[in-house]
């Protein structure tokens, strides 16, 4: 007798399929649960800065039999990089973001950032134009496939790309667009718009910046960063006195060094406008100088402005008054090194080499981290009677090692090397300096090069520089 079954025969295969599907679903859910557990453990390990443990858990996701999630692979690459395995990390990122075709957007973003850093190191003027062109092509490829996450970072990368590729106007547009996400950037957008001559967009951005900073200050008058931003807007739009009031109001609320430094810079800015009117506004100039030193006795721009005005002073009385301000700073024990340094500079202008050298020596003894002092001291040492030229050379070599971009230091070293009669070495430095010279300084540079070439037996080249010097 046939066994009774409550299901029709046609239904049995379907039930088997459904049951099998349920088993597979439970298996899949269990697998996903395990993956989520691995991800959770990996995140915790990253929080604990235990990158080896994080890498272990992520490797279970990446190296499993099933197809790996590209997000897991990317996270594994980041952990590999953090744990020091840069080769493995880069290989995986290269697979996730190939140089042609698609890939995983976060890996493309990562490679776009790498291209951005590489572009910053390439010097187009030093034969790197081909490398720069190739890098920019790769940059655009990866940037175009970087997704839309973190739009502010994406806009920054596009800005960097456009500027590096010479598409300045497109770069400025991206800066303006980024200000919609970060209103603090309206000020940068205004400055950038002005630099490309778009005055209408510049004024609009300044207006947006002013509204933003005003709103921030209304909500929190102690927000010194917004106060500084507001001052920059006011100065850039010609409202210097109003900017001064905003700063003074802020300093009355909180005596922050950032506000004091900006207040000093603002007084220097006002002094620049008076530099050519010393005969009629000298008292106002000295008043602003006193305020600048009061706000920030270490303000290098104030010392530099004092030295410039000292050179342009209309009378001995004006020079003595300016010199007296520096001497009072020394007497009060405020930024003694900078005061001695500036005294050394102005005493050189007075033609008193010994006193200039004495003050500069004191500045160096008090603060040997002031690299400009090393430059001046090398110059003064090489100009004295019976100079210690080896010491002068050591000082200027130190200065150049700290600031190799400063062209003035090479001028000083070229002069020292001339004194040492090391003509070939002097030539290298003086040739480097010449393109950066104009007017009287260019005439001096040609005269020195003429002397060097003559000493090297190159009379024809010496004659060329003598002629150039006479034409200046």
Characterization of the model:
The protein has 472 residues and is mostly helical. Among the domains are: 167-254; 256-367, Serine Threonine Protein Phosphatase 5, Tetratricopeptide repeat; 381-472, Alpha Horseshoe (Serine Threonine Protein Phosphatase 5, Tetratricopeptide repeat). It has 24 helices and no strands. Residues 1-7 and 14-31 have low confidence and may be disordered.
**pLDDT < 50 stretches:** 1-7, 14-31
Largest sheet: none
Coarse structural class: mainly alpha
Q: What overall form do the CA principal axes indicate?
A: globular
| Total of helices | 24
What is the CATH C level class of the domain at 256-367, in words? Mainly Alpha
Query: How are helices and strands ordered from N to C?
Result: HHHHHHHHHHHHHHHHHHHHHHHH
The CATH architecture of the domain at 256-367 can be given as Alpha Horseshoe
> What amount of the residues lies in strands?
under 5%
Number of strands: 0
* N/C terminus separation: 125 Å
Query: What is the third-level CATH name, the topology of the domain at 256-367?
Result: Serine Threonine Protein Phosphatase 5, Tetratricopeptide repeat
Query: How would you state the average pLDDT, rounded?
Result: 85
Percent of residues in helices comes to over 70%
Radius of gyration: 33 Å
What descriptors fit this protein?
24 helices; Serine Threonine Protein Phosphatase 5, Tetratricopeptide repeat; mainly alpha; 472 residues; disordered N terminus
């Amino acid at each position: 007798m046939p066994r009774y079954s409550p299901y029709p025969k046609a239904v049995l295969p379907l039930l088997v399929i459904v049951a099998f599907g349920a088993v597979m679903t439970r298996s899949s859910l269990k697998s996903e649960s395990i993956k989520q557990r691995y991800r959770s453990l990996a995140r915790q390990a990253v929080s604990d800065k235990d990158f080896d443990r994080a890498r272990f858990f992520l490797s279970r996701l990446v190296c499993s039999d099933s197809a790996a999630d590209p997000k897991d692979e990317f996270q594994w690459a980041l952990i590999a990089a953090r744990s020091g395995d840069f080769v493995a990390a880069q290989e995986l990122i290269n697979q996730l973001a190939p140089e042609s075709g698609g890939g995983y957007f976060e890996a493309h973003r990562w490679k776009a950032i790498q291209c951005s850093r590489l572009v910053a190191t390439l010097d187009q003027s030093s034969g790197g134009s081909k490398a720069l062109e190739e890098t920019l092509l790769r940059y655009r490829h990866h940037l175009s496939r970087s997704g839309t996450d973190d739009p502010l970072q994406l806009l920054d990368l596009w800005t960097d790309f456009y500027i590096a590729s010479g598409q300045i106007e497109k770069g400025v547009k991206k800066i303006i667009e980024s200000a919609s996400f970060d209103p603090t950037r309206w000020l940068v957008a205004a400055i950038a718009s002005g630099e490309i001559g778009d005055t209408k967009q510049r004024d609009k951005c300044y207006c947006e910046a002013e509204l933003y900073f005003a709103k921030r200050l209304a909500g929190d008058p102690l927000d010194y960063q917004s106060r500084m931003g507001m001052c920059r807007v006011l100065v850039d739009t010609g409202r210097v006195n109003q900017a001064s009031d905003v700063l003074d109001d802020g300093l009355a609320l909180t005596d922050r060094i950032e506000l004091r430094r900006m207040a000093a810079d603002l007084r220097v800015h006002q002094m620049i406008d008076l530099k050519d009117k010393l005969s009629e506004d000298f008292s106002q100039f000295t008043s602003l100088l006193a305020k600048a030193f009061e706000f920030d006795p270490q303000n290098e721009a104030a010392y530099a402005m004092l030295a410039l005005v000292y050179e342009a002073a209309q009378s001995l009385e004006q020079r003595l008054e300016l010199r007296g301000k520096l001497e009072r700073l020394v007497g009060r024990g405020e930024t003694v090194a900078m005061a001695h340094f500036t005294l050394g500079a102005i005493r050189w202008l007075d033609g008193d080499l010994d006193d200039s050298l004495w003050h500069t020596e004191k500045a160096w003894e008090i603060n040997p981290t002031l690299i400009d002092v090393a430059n001046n001291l090398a110059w003064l040492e090489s100009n004295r009677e019976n100079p210690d030229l080896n010491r002068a050379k050591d000082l200027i070599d130190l200065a150049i090692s700290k600031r190799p971009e400063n062209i003035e230091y090479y001028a000083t070293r070229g002069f020292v090397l001339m004194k040492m009669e090391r003509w070939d070495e002097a030539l290298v430095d003086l040739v480097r300096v010449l393109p950066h010279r104009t007017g009287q300084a260019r005439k001096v540079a040609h005269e020195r090069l003429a002397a060097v070439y003559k000493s090297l037996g190159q009379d024809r080249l010496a004659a060329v520089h003598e002629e150039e010097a006479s034409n200046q």
